[in-house]
Specification:
15% strand, 39% helix, alpha+beta, 6 helices, 105 residues, four-stranded mixed β-sheet, globular
Length: 105
Amino acid sequence: MEIYGLKTCDTCRKAIKALPDARFVDVRADGVPADVMQAALAVFGEKLVNTRSTTWRGLSEEARQGTPQALLAAHPTLMKRPLVTDGDDMHLGWTKDVQAALGVA
């Protein structure tokens, strides 16, 4: 199991604490592997872009018009967090539903 997020993100910290055996990948420092990003975009589409983030608010209207793939490639911190992968299963965010699906709720 892997958790993709930011080490400074409180929600990611909660996921890391609840899933101590999972490997954490900081998207700012290490990025998201291309195959994982493609799979996440296929599953979540535009939901993968966090339009409530500080990074999003700092973008110009023109920059916001890019595809989710282009936006996330240019600004990895725009990714909604955390992205949890467990084999072929993917979960986005740290809602009660995600926690229940991962058996930690």
